[in-house]
């Protein structure tokens, strides 16, 4: 059985609908809580796949969260070794930081359901499943594209919404992993951010009901296609 190392920052931002395709392809999950659980260099290196999930902190907030420096350096070691890695939201930002790129506040918060604009490379690869479908955005930060990365998707205020480095690294600024049945955990967990941004929870709920199931199916299809490319032999 293949091992998937999962780095989680808050409990409700979990693998969501990504868990199914991973389990179907024979992955077991080793879930670690960032800032609490120790992950050795060998564990980072040896895991067949690492998935770094989202969270409400900034990749650059190393003064407030000192463990980020060590964590980012370990992630950089894995990337330098060419080991398969997926980053979602904060996870994508940490991949960029680990590769020496700047992570910084964007021009505005992007929260809610809207499609991404796929690049030619995005339409030709695993993200094709998202074409024309709204996805959940939930971020205030952005990053510069890592050297050697291919941009896969953009929005008007966030040019770098998704990128790939070869077939082994996938960074996703938005949240194709979210299980729409669990949106209330996000609305509770991010209550301060939502209030500060003046977000209408009723509208978010209604949009989740309208778009969530199609987005979840597209998210599963996205990861399935990426796994088929990166791990062509099942089991």
Proportion of beta-strand residues: 15-25%
Largest sheet: 8 strands, mixed
- Broad CATH class: Alpha Beta
The CATH homologous superfamily corresponds to: Class I glutamine amidotransferase (GATase) domain
Structural class, judged by helices and strands?
Answer: alpha/beta
Number of strands: 10
Rounded to an integer, what's the Rg over CA atoms? 16 Å
- Give the overall shape: globular
In DSSP terms (H or I, runs of 4 or more residues), the helix count works out at 8
The CATH topology is Rossmann fold
| Helicity level | 25-40%
Instruction: Please give the domain count.
Output: 1
InterPro entries: ChyE-like, Class_I_gatase-like, GATASE
GO cellular component, one term: cytosol
Protein name: GMP synthase
Topology:
Elements: E1 2-8, H1 19-24, E2 27-33, H2 41-46, E3 49-52, H3 67-80, E4 85-88, H4 90-98, E5 103-114, E6 117-118, H5 120-123, E7 135-143, E8 150-154, E9 162-165, E10 169-172, H6 183-189, H7 191-196, H8 201-230
Parallel strand pairs: 1-2, 1-3, 3-4, 4-10
Antiparallel strand pairs: 5-7, 6-8, 8-9, 9-10
Helix pairs in contact: 3-4
């Amino acid at each position: 059985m293949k091992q998937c190392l999962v780095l989680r920052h808050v409990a409700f931002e979990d693998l969501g609908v990504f868990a199914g395709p991973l389990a179907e392809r024979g992955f077991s999950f080793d879930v670690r809580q960032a800032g609490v659980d120790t992950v050795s260099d060998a564990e980072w290196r040896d895991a067949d796949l690492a998935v770094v999930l989202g969270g409400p902190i900034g990749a650059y907030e190393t003064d407030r969260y000192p463990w980020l420096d060590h964590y980012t350096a370990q992630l950089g070691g894995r990337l330098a070794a060419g080991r398969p890695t997926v980053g979602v939201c904060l996870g994508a930002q940490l991949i960029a930081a680990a590769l020496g790129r700047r992570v910084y506040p964007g021009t505005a918060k992007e929260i809610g359901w809207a499609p991404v604009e796929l690049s030619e490379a995005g339409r030709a690869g695993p993200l094709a499943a998202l074409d024309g479908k709204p996805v959940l955005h939930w971020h205030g930060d952005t990053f510069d594209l890592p050297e050697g990365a291919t941009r896969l998707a953009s929005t008007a205020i966030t040019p770098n919404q998704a990128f790939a480095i070869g077939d082994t690294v996938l960074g996703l600024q938005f949240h194709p992993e979210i299980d729409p049945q669990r949106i209330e955990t996000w609305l509770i967990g991010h209550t301060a951010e939502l209030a500060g941004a003046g977000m209408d929870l009723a509208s978010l709920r209604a949009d989740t009901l309208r778009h969530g199931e199609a987005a979840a199916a597209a998210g599963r299809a996205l990861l399935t296609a990426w796994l088929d490319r990166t791990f062509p032999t099942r089991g």
